[in-house]
Amino acid sequence: MSDLLDEYPMLMFALESLLALFLLIFIVVWTSSGKKKQARIAQRARKTPGENSDNQESQP
Fold it and tell me: What's the distance, Cα to Cα, between the start and end of the chain in Å?
């Protein structure tokens, strides 16, 4: 491993930057999915069981 780093000294920086990029993308995706999940939970909480559009159409 040290021979590889001796031949290519910038390899460690490239690997570290790829890891940082992956971590950044992961954090952005993780936090944006949490916001969507919270919005869905809030939307369900606002809806009452009698407001379902399928039930209103089937009832005369």
Answer: 76
The amino acid sitting at 4 is: L
Question: How far is residue 41's CA from residue 33's CA, in Å, rounded to a whole number?
Answer: 12
pLDDT tens-digit readout, 5-54 = 788 889 989 999 999 999 999 999 998 887 777 777 888 888 856 555 55
- Cα 8 to Cα 19: distance, rounded to the nearest angstrom: 18
Distance, in Å, from the CA atom of 47 to the CA atom of 53, rounded to the nearest integer, reads: 11
CB 5 within 8 A of CB 11: yes
